[in-house]
Amino acid sequence: MNKRKIFLIITAFILTSIIAGSLGAVAVLAAWPFTDVFPGDSFYNDVHWMDSNGITTGCTATQYCPWSNVNRAQMAVFLHREAGVLVAAGVHVTRDGANNPVVEDWFNNVNAVAPTISGGAGEYNINIGFATTGRFVMCAVDTNYVDTRDALCTTSTPGGNTVRVRIYDISVGGQAPAEFWVMVYGQ
Fold it and tell me: Residue 68 falls within a domain, yes or no?
């Protein structure tokens, strides 16, 4: 092969790469709604995440207006939308007259299914109505019920729709009944 053919092949390869790369960039830019936020901006990933999760819509259909001030009403909308995206569910467990666990208050931003609870004596299973895989779960002991104020709670997600809660009371020296909150985070 002579040098001229090699030069033409390399040039064709380079031009093809440039054109293909440009078309790919055009496709990416066409899907991105904001003409005033660019991939090189330090806040690009954050704005992209907020847009992808339905938290922001920008100040117009094509602009985000990254340097504009946010008023209180706009901040309320952002926080409300974020809570719907990030907080999947919450459950408040109290006790009835026979000392049995009862779901007193709850919310479910995933599918609005009411949670159910089983167990007792410091170990509870809560069916939250949606898969717990890939979600962050935490609990807090409600100090209105625990007199000693030194109870701890732990959570685990054994699979399916279940959140397992264990309450350990240091003063009792083992598991003990309690009232508690469980929060499930994630989409």
Answer: no
